[in-house]
Amino acid sequence: MENKKTLTPEQLEDAKRLKALYESKKKELKITQYTIADDLGISQGAVGHYLNGRIALNAPVVSKMAHILQCKTSEISPSLAKEINHYAHALDNNVSDLRPYTPGKRYPVLSSVQAGCWSEAIEAYTIDEISEWLESDAHIQGDAFWLKVEGDSMTAPTGQSVPEGNYVLFDTGKEPMNGSLVIAKLTDSNEATFKKLIIDAGQKYLKGLNPAWPMVPVNGNCKVIGVAVEAKMRFL
Length: 236
Fold this sequence. Notes:
By secondary structure, the protein is an alpha+beta fold. Helices cover 29% and strands 27% of the residues. It is built from 6 helices and 10 strands, in the order ααααααββββββββββ. Strands 1, 2, 3, 4, 5, 6, 7, 8, 9 and 10 form a 10-stranded mixed beta sheet that branches. Strand 7 (191-200) and strand 8 (203-207) form a beta hairpin. Helix 2 packs across helix 3 (44-51). The longest helix has 21 residues, at 9-29. It is globular, with a radius of gyration of 19 Å.
């Protein structure tokens, strides 16, 4: 198992401010880690990780936390507040350059992925069974589908991270390479998992982006069925 990465001093201070705000307002606002988890679409454990500085906060999470705690984003994280304001300012400056909206191709959301644990497999489906579709303008080489990430195995404290609640678009026609984020399936059961593919000296492994999760050797009973090409977070 790899050594767990620690957060920067700035990220730890963000977590302290968040936890202090939560502790001071939870009774007044009648909120708990469970209600926050429901609002964010993540697990209670993930909320605890954010509050206790085990997982670094990011702009979408800080924005939502500020809304729930009825405070300014800068009260939680001054640096992320600046990042949010920067993107908002850039958007305002580019309003004059807006072009007519062209819808992307719609792909089905098949099921949730238990990131880090073997979960429900992607099998044949009928259109009548699909209740949710999401758009994408990504170049797709084969059939594609979205899955919603659950669990924290693909949540990293720094660097590349795909937190719980994100939707990931998988292209079944794209060739997996060393470092690709993939959905892999056991050939002898109806189970699948979302992981990073590592190829070292011909040996393949599935690895979580969360350093606390072990790297698992891939043997003959496992195959890659799709490569991640896009991820998005939805708040509504």
